[in-house]
Predict the structure.
Amino acid sequence: IGEEALRENKPREAAEAYRNAGEQQRADTILAEMYEGIKEYGKAAEYYEQAGEPEKANECRFRQAEEYRGEGKYEEAAAVLETLGEYNYANRLIPQVRYEQGKAEEAKEAYKEAAAAYREAGEYADAAKRAAYCEGLDQYNKGLYTLAAGTFESLEDYEDAEEWAQRSWLAAGDKYHEQGNETQAREAYGKGGEKGQRIIAVVQSTVTGVSVNAYYTGKVDISWTKEDNADGYEVVLYRDHIEMDRKTTDSAQVTFT
């Protein structure tokens, strides 16, 4: 009955017939081959294992991992590969799969998840630095600018980490400035490098005018005149303009190139 069912391409009926006849191993092999044929490798592996064919079971698991990988299911792929140990160098593929997972998460701007995946990749390629880079981006997006700056600085000349460090210090300075913490604002701006530096200075004044000297993208000498006494003005030097606010309601702005 089992052979006749196989000739008629009815594997389930054939397996049932062999099982009823007490030939469980043959039944499991038939089902394994059926599932392998329709690319359900997980089930095929289970039946091959039950049939006492571990090599074929591992082959199906490996194919299953490759299928998961191709579908972008990196967690599933890594989990299957971990069960294979040294079979077909599966253990060596795990870091590569984790690295690909990190790239996929990074492309979605899911930087926390990307960093975790890169860390799982261990010493594969630039995974360690990439993990730190994504961690810095995650910190920056969360407004943890000082932490982000430190993370990017630890990467030194890796890709555009130096630029991100400057950007982070500048953002940190802005945050401190908005909070009214000018001491820490100055410190953060100073660490941002020339292109990102903002300097807050108290005006040195005379009756006829004011002037301020400051290091800003090189040394800049700025002066202007006011008809009245300029005592009490505060000058903020930004990258492209100066803002001057008096303690009263008066204010003025000078744009420079």
